[in-house]
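forwarding from the other thread:

> can someone predict this with zinc ion?

sure thing
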Amino acid sequence: MPTLNLKKFEFRQKVLAENDRVAAALRETFEERGVASFNLVSSPGSGKTSLLEHTLRELGDELNMALVAGDVQTDNDANRLIAAGGKRVRPIVTGGACHLEAHMVGTAMEEIDLDGVDIMFIENVGNLVCPSSYDLGEHLKIALISTTEGDDKPLKYPGIFRRSSVMVINKTDLAQYSNFSIERVRENALSINPGLRIFEVSCQTGEGLDAWYDWLRGVVAGSESLASMAVEEAR
Ligand code: MG
Ligand code: ZN
C-alpha cells in the first residue's frame, strides 16, 4: 500500500505543477492587459454570487468587469450575473469537480474579450478546502464567510485564510440571530493571517458595501496596490 500512496502523491504533485504552469501564463495575460484578477472562495451559500451581483449593479457603469462563475452543475450563477448587468460573463460547469483549475479558467477566458477590462472576478466552486491549492492566475484570493456559518471557520480551514488577502464577512444583518460573533471571526482570521483586509457587509441590506466598492475603485485607480497585498505563500 505505501507504494500506491506514493504514486498517488506523485500524481497529485504533477497535477499541481501543471496547474501552476497554466496559472502563471494566465497571470502574465492579466498583467499584460492591465486586468486586476480576483479568485473568490467560500463555502456554498456564503454569498459570492450575491456580492458580485451587487458589485455589477453598483459599479457596472464605472468599471469594466469580466466574470467567470464556477459551479459543479448548472450555469445558474452565470445567468444571475448576466441578469445583474454583467456583459462579459462565462460559466464553468465542472461536472463534479469541487474546485476550479487554471485550465478551466483559461478555456472560459478564450471566450471573453479582455479589451478594456479592469477587473476579472473568478467565482470558485463553493468549497473551502481544495480551492486553496489551485492557483488560477489571480492577483489575490478573496475569502468570504457568512454569519450563518461558524465563526471558527478560519481555524478549521486555515489554508484558504492564510492564502487570501481579503476576507469579506457577509450577512452581518443576520449575526444578531445566531451565535456568530463578528469580533471572534475577525480575531480567528487575523490569528491565521494578520495581513488580511476585512470587509463587513450585508448583501441583503447593503450595509458595508460602500467600503468594498471604494476598495475596488482604488484598485482600478491604482491607489490600492495589489502587489503589496499579495500573500507570499499564495502560490
Ligand atoms: Mg455562487
Ligand atoms: Zn476540489
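The domain at 2-229 is CATH 3.40.50.300 (Rossmann fold). thats all i got for now
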